[in-house]
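Researcher: We're teaching a course module on how sequence relates to structure. For the next exercise, students receive a sequence and then see the predicted structure as tokens, so they can try to spot secondary structure elements on their own. Here is the exercise chain.
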Amino acid sequence: MTGKVYKSTGSWYTVKTELGHTYECRIKGKFRIKGIKSTNPIAVGDVVDFEVETNNNQESGIIHNIHERTNYIVRKSVNLSKQTHIIAANLDQVFLLITINNPPTLTSFIDRFLVTAEAYSIKTVLLFNKIDVYDKDTLDEVRYLAHIYRQIGYECIGVSAKTGKNIDKVKALMLDKVSMFAGHSGVGKSTLVNTIEPDLNIKTKAISSLHMQGQHTTTFAEMFDLSFDARIIDTPGIKGFGVVDMDKEEVGDYFPEIFKLKQDCKFNNCLHIKEPKCAVKKALDEDQITFSRYRSYLQILEGEDEHYRTDIWDKE
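Model: And here is the predicted structure for the students to work with:
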């Protein structure tokens, strides 16, 4: 039988067939995907083949094959730096939720996520959440960040699960698509999903006042069929985002504003650091490229892993 993975708990997988039947499945023995050293060989969104077996009048499935993925979102496993963690597979788009405070979302985190999405050609929409609670200065910061990313070509939408602002706009983008919602713990993913589809009633939890960080409420990625011809993947809060397996020469290709200028550099293999007649450095000096983006580029280039492991708010 063939089905799509809707939930992964690490050892068991909920698989749904095209006829709408669900089976709890597991992997028999070791299961490795060619070229991927992952903590989770099977991810939500994967299409798998499985065989049904019956034990004590209980039906379950044994997964024996994973269909080729169209794409996936992957990051370094924080505790096992040589391993990777596949967050979800076969996506049409990702909504990255961003909050300015309670908890803060760093530009380095945003950029690392966007670079990975670019590498796998996954459309990403930036949702600036909780705009109903921001004062004027914070709203100005939202507008500034949105301006940076709109200039690059990313769609940015200010939303509020509490007031319903722009929820219809988000729902319209989700029609007939598989969408993943991602972001730090506490940015309001589950609350937003509940606003989009109230019948789901996904658990939410208050922000920790001690560190002003979110508490993990979603412990496993899970896909849901929605009432308006859309599918959503709700994911655990991501504390940090480590970029996986990129050659230094290709990192700039996943920053659209750097890629656009690459051909104007004197050297074909220019890394845009100290090389002469570099179009990217010239654009940076002329404020055509934002410093925060260039800094993120350098951090990824230099493999500064400590940056993706922290949630310290570093005001620019």
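Model: If you want an answer key for the exercise: The first strand starts at residue 2 and ends at 8. Residues 205-219, 306-316 have pLDDT under 50 and may be disordered.
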